[in-house]
Amino acid sequence: MLKVGDKLPQFEGINQDGETVQSEKLIGKKLVIFFYPQANTPTCTVEACNLSDNYSKLEKAGFQLLGISGDSVKKQKNFHNKFAFPYDLIADENRDIIEKFGVWQEKKTFGKTYMGIVRTTFIFDEKGVCTRVIEKVTSKTAAEQILEG
Predict the structure, then answer these.
(1) Which site in 36, 58, 117, 120 is 20 to 30 Å from 95, CA atoms measured?
(2) d(Cα 40, Cα 91) in Å, to the nearest integer?
(3) Is 44 a catalytic site residue?
(4) What's this model's pTM, rounded to 2 decimal places?
(5) Rounded to whole angstroms, how far apart are CA atoms 26 and 90?
(6) What residue stretches are annotated with the Thioredoxin domain (predicted)?
(7) Which residues is 107 bridged to in the sheet?
């Protein structure tokens, strides 16, 4: 998993509108990248909506936001439109970005072990250096966790 002090990995992803988002174009402003397991599921929706509801506070603190999951562009678009998120959602079906950040890991639910995305938030400074990793994201207070840093 990416850690504090690491540089923002180079990546190219497709957002909910089918547009290319390049990591190098995100440098210059503080950046929050949050990885979530699946669009439109209860816990992921709570997290994404909390970030949306607190977007003005995050923006005022100088952050730009980007959400990433392994969903398709179509699923991301539906999720984005349903809740009118003010930030992009990246579709990473091949898990290229997910694996670069190290959030594709073994998980356990109800005694079953499987591979999946570990809900994690990464915060980068204006130079693209990771300043914080939030591994125990609380969906209901995701924005507060970012702002308290």
Answers:
(1) 58
(2) 13
(3) yes
(4) 0.95
(5) 13
(6) 2-149
(7) 114
Residue from 33, 44, 51, 130 carrying the catalytic annotation: 44
Q: Where are the beta strands (DSSP E) in the chain?
A: 12-15, 20-22, 30-35, 63-69, 88-91, 104-109, 112-117, 120-124, 130-134
- All structural domains of the chain, each given as residue ranges with its CATH number in brackets, are 12-147 (3.40.30.10)
What band does 149 get if pLDDT is binned at 50, 70 and 90?
confident
Q: What would the 3-class secondary structure string for 31-54 be?
A: EEEEECCCCCCHHHHHHHHHHHHC
- Tell whether the model's pLDDT for residue 118 goes beyond 90: yes
- Residue 109 is predicted with a pLDDT of 85
* Residue 120's pLDDT band (cuts 50, 70, 90): very high
Average pLDDT estimate for 108-116: 92
DSSP code, position 9? P
